[in-house]
Specification:
MJ0021-like, 9-stranded mixed sheet, Radical SAM protein, 332 residues, alpha/beta, 11 helices, elongated, single chain
């Protein structure tokens, strides 16, 4: 089963809104957060550091977001920011802008009410792994019913550490609407502690943990009609790539080429702009920067080949707000 939020994510249409990096005194060994996200009071919309409410809206528009996935820390200041962003997004984009929150605490009825009133659609709970199998009769069971009573769709989202039948029991009882299992991954933020716990990377894989797709996990859990197993490959090849494509489509200039990976390709030459005007290059094929000119990459190649320019380079970069360069190829 794929929820509406996951459908939008697969299309690359879900903006990721990170609100603080404190997690209610929990210190899970598998937490993937890196140094710039763990134990910080920062907010990020995708890769954009948020300095104002306008930054959140600008990033959503940059990617034509269909919805927003909210994750991050748990202090009350984070809750206040989360509810404000929810209201902001609903006011700007309307009720069709689907929102879900991933959280590692139960929160209580008042927080469920506040989130619902602010416009949250789904809430996905991530209980501590040491409680898996022993959650019935606890606050983790209670909050599922409370969230539904307050107008939210309650669900679980967990890492694929091991098969745990109790999650299926909550689904069959109607307490939780669905359960998402994310393939267990290593990152720069958790690599050392994961190894200390005996986990290793899959052979020939950049992040997936060995055994995260074992037979028990897949057959016992992912075969359930209300369980969705999200692989590392799918996250990279579909979710992330499609999000980049949406951004690239929105921000590309007339002469930028959008690749299958969602990156932008253009040419760059450190020459006076008068050179292009003298050669009769149409204005839509280049733009003048303070210290260089950016131009259609194929036109740059032709001009160097014809001797109109001595050299230049072809640049490939992400369409994200920071415009990280993927590759530079000299042309001479």
């Amino acid at each position: 089963m794929i929820s509406k939020g996951c459908e939008q994510c697969a299309k690359g249409g879900k903006m990721v809104l990170f609100v603080y990096g404190y997690c209610d005194q929990r210190d899970c060994f598998y937490c993937p957060l890196g140094e710039n996200r763990k134990n910080v009071t920062d907010v990020y919309a995708n890769e954009r550091k948020v300095e104002s409410d306008e930054d959140v809206i600008a990033e959503a528009k940059r990617m034509s977001a269909l919805g927003t996935s909210i994750t991050g820390g748990e202090p009350q200041e984070a809750m206040a920011k989360t509810t404000r962003y929810l209201e902001l997004l609903k006011d700007e984009f309307g009720e069709d802008h689907h929102t879900h929150l991933y959280t590692g605490i139960t929160g209580g009825r008042e927080n469920m009410r506040r989130l619902s009133e602010a416009g949250l659609d789904e809430i996905r709970f991530h209980p501590p792994v040491e409680l898996w199998g022993d959650m019935h009769g606890t606050e983790w069971e209670d909050i599922l019913y409370i969230a539904r009573e307050e107008g939210l769709t309650p669900a679980f989202e967990i890492p694929g550490i091991r098969a745990e039948p109790e999650f299926l029991e909550f689904l069959d009882e109607g307490a939780a609407e669905f359960c998402n299992i994310n393939e267990f991954e290593m990152s720069d933020g958790n690599y050392r502690r994961m190894q200390e716990e005996g986990f290793e990377l899959q052979e020939d894989h950049m992040s997936a943990v060995e055994g995260s797709k074992d037979d028990a996990l897949v057959s016992e859990m992912a075969s359930h009609e209300k369980v969705y197993f999200c692989t590392s490959v799918f996250k990279d090849a579909a979710q992330h790539r499609n999000r980049l494509k949406r951004m690239a489509k929105n921000i590309r200039r007339a002469f930028d080429e959008v690749t299958d990976d969602g990156t932008l390709v253009y040419g760059k030459a450190s020459v006076d702009a008068d050179r292009f005007e003298a050669l009769g290059v149409p204005e839509e094929f280049y733009t003048v920067k303070s210290e260089h000119v950016e131009i259609a990459w194929w036109l740059l190649e032709e001009m160097v080949e014809d001797g109109d320019l001595d050299e230049g380079e072809i640049v490939e970069q992400y369409p994200t707000v920071n415009g990280t360069v993927v590759e530079r190829t000299p042309v001479a």
